Amino acid sequence: xxxxxxxxxxxxxxxxxxIIQLQNQIASSQRIMxxxxxxxxxxxxxxxxxxxxxxxxTLVEFGGIEPNPTHETCMKAVDLIRSEGIDFILAVGGGSxxxxxxxxxxxxxQEDPWQILTGAAEIRQALPxxxxxxxxxxxxxxxxxxxxxxxxxxxxxxxxxxEVMPRFSILDPESAASLPQKQVANGIVDSFxxxxxxxxxxxxxxxxxxxxxxxxxxxxxxxxxxxxxxxxDYDAMANLMWCSTMALNGLISRGVHEDWVIHQIGxxxxxFHGIDHARTLAIVLPGVWNVFRTxxxxxxxxxxxxxxxxxxxAEDQAIDQxxxxxxxxxxxxxxxxxxSAYGVPADTIQKIVxxxxxxxxxxxxxxxxxxxxxxxxxxxxRL
Length: 383
Known about the structure:
It is a single chain. This protein is α/β, with parallel strands linked by helices. It has two domains: 11-176, Rossmann fold; 181-380, Up-down Bundle (Dehydroquinate synthase-like, alpha domain). 48% of the residues lie in helices and 11% in strands. The protein has helices at residues 22-25, 40-43, 46-53, 71-84, 95-107, 114-118, 181-199, 207-229, 234-247, 261-273, 277-291, 297-306, 315-332, 347-359, 372-380, and strands spanning 11-14, 31-35, 58-62, 88-93, 129-133, 145-150, 155-160, 168-171. Strands 1-8-5-4-2-3 form a six-stranded parallel β-sheet, with helices on one face.
């Protein structure tokens, strides 16, 4: 096991009726910006609960944050924060709203906020923020990460800073009870691949982390179809919500090796074609496993045995079964795993290869194995 440091200061309030906790977590003197997306919080009753809990507070609302939040929209919120003297951000929604709110919180103190995403600017200060989660998927409610798109350059980039970790997050499974099946499916797959990126590299002598990762994967496979069939199933939704949070709060990645190339390639598919993030992951993952089946063999076979109950004396045959069974899990949630299903032409592959080259992403991810030419190979297998 590798040396590591672990600190997660996010306070979690989990379960029914927890929105009332807002009154105890935000000082009455603070001026709050309430951020949200396309309006689902009005339909599911979460908006009314938040407003009721904060009836005595000064609130300024900022809605319309996109499913793939953009730099351009976030800058409008930054202007409003400056003009209104806001000193706390409350993000009410899914991962996109929370990611945008993290970026906004840091951008207020930057001359050129986009440099946060390019890595040219350091985040030394951010507005405090809290979250009310309505869509389990990204785990952003309990981590330091954010992903933002930029329309004028067709880019989608990530950043991470402890300065933007939420002070608290409220996770009430009832808030997600009316989600459309498509969004539930996206959340399941997003959570699943988050675990895979931290788990499925090579053995690191960390059996506890492996077992925790496998527990999340197994729970998602068992509970995912239940909550997909009925998002109002409280117990199933509660299990999905907690899996999504635990998948990316830093716990299972301590002391082990990570990858994240599935995400880096997937972000480009979203940037060029607007495909839902989770669906890009479902496309790319089988390609990564096929191309690196030898290099990832030990963990692939372990995943097959422990999570999928696949045993075979022929290793290559077992890996074929593992990939096929994982694809079947995704497709059972209504998520296609081929580029052609999303109308992505073959020439997009070259655009993505060119972008990896231009950014200097020449040997990234697990053991630096993913080169631009490997990206080409990975995506070509998914046409």
